[in-house]
Structures are given as structure tokens and as C-alpha cells.
Here is the input.
Amino acid sequence: MTETFRVGVTRDLLGEGTKGLGDTGVGLLDGVPGLAWEYLPERIQTFEPSHLANYDAIAILGGRVTAESVEANPRLALLARYGVGYDNIDIDACTNAGIAVTITPDGVRRPMATAIMTLILALSTRLMQQDRLTRSGGWSRKIDSMGIGLTGRVLGLVGLGNIGREVVRLAAPWEMRHIAHDPWAIPGAAPGVELVDLETVFRTADFVVIACALTAETRHLVNTERLALMKPDAYLINTARGPIVDQAALTEALRSGRIAGAGIDVFEQEPVDPNDPILALDNVIATPHALGWTDEWIRKTGESALGGILELSRGEVPPHIVNREVLNVTAFREKLARFVHR
Here is the structure.
């Protein structure tokens, strides 16, 4: 009898409180011959080996996967991450254990680019200030909240990957100038975008958008020195990962008027402390690492993550593997071969 391909789905994909996440794509796994799936029995902060031992693949949203989580695991072949960040997963340990890690760039591209454009538009129109002015009876002072037009302004991207390129496509009707810094970008890959050095982005842009991954090299990439390069009427937007920005330095730059404002969906420590001084500033728009979370995000991300799991169950290499070197690891090749002959 052919062995069943077992899939675990992290319980946080059920959502929290009274409202679930909606269509997470798990229906794609229903009725697939030779495949069984289930939600993990509990919400997990850090995975223990026992949480992962009985599955061939895990669809994962949150929770930390450490070297200890995956040690001595001869069965698990894939961690399919909902989203594009993978700083909660020890990638090297997964590679050594013969476990592929996939992400879902095709699922997050449009929703996250939309979130970035939402912040650009809200900051440029001073939407939050105008809202507060209206609610407080300050109608006669509305000229104090006059916004700025986007035509001819400079949009500067730190990172020109999947999401960064989509931001450029969405921003096209506003006729801005587009510049970007990305050491991995190929000249001409994003028409209409001028590749420049990092300091030029900070000196020149009216809107500096952080759209890169969190790595050892990008941690506190945005620090006091780089914030000091920005124009006093410029804005910083971060929807990538909080630790890319030195939050204390950003708070001081915003408090002192060194820069005009910021839109931040991510923080150095999450959840952010409600008493954090950055939340007391009226030139900040803050959201809880969820601005891109829409029905479109969860549906498309689920289709991507679970589609990759289905490909693996047929003995095929799934797309969007982060640790491509795992393809040459004997343990992974042996697992893949087992699925081919299921």
C-alpha cells in the first residue's frame, strides 16, 4: 500500500478572535488521492521536533523554526511559508536537514505594493492629520494640513525585487521619477527605474520605501546617518521588516522634524508596545504588520504555498525555494524520490 503524504497546517492560519482569515487555500488539499492534511493541534511559538516529525510538508505562517526544531527529521521535506519573509526559520539548519523552504512572492506582490502606495498617498495628502482636524472641529484650520502632489516627485526604493517592481508599476500614473538601490538588480530589469547607490536614494527621494529582505547586512540599514541624508520634507515607508530600521533613530528624526513623516507597518519588536514613543507622534501612520493582509493576499498566498506542496507530493520540485542548495543535499533528494514512487 502506498504511504500517505501527510501535510500539517499551522493553526494560526485559522485566524484570531471572532474573524478568521478567510480563504487560505486549504481546500486545494481536499480530496487529493494519497494525501491527508490537518491543522496542527495548537498554536506554536517555537517548534519542537515532535511538532514536525509526522509530516512530509508543513504550511506555515508564524512560529519559529530553529536548528533544534528540525534535527534528526528524516521525513519532513518542505516548509511552505505564507509570505516572503523567512527570518523566523533557520534556513541553514533546514538545508542541512534536507528540508526545502518556499515563499510566496506571487501571492504578496500586488497586495504589498498596494499597501505601500496606500501609505504614500495617505502621507502625501496628510490624510490622518485632516481626519483628526475634522473630528476635533478644526475645519477652519484645514489649510494647515495641505498635502503635496506626487507628479515630478522622486520615489526611492531600497530593494527592487518582486514587490519593489510592482510598486513602480502601480505608481506609474502619478508620473514620479523612480530611483532604486539593489545590489542584485540587473540594469534594465525594471524599465523607468534608475539604479543608484544607497546614499543617493536617501539624499534624493521624496519617499524612501524599504522593500528589501531582513538579513545580517540589512539590519539597521536605516540608521541615524542615513536618516540625516534625507530631505526635511521627505517621508520614510517601511512595510518590509522592522529591524531594517533603527527605530530609536527614526523616532528622533521624526520628533525633531528632521524628516516630514513615516508610514510603518513593521516594528523592531512586535507586537509594538502601545506606549512606544513612535506611536505618540502625529507625523506617523502606524499599522500592525497587517496593511497588506487582504482577502487577495491570503487567497493568492495560499494558492502559491499549497500549490508547491502539491507539486512536491508528486515528486516535483516546488517553485520559489529560498534555499536552492537543498536540491543537492542527499537527504532531500531521497525524500523527493520517495514521493515520485508513492
Remarks:
- The mean pLDDT is 95.
- The first helix runs from residue 49 to 52.
- The longest strand covers residues 5-9.
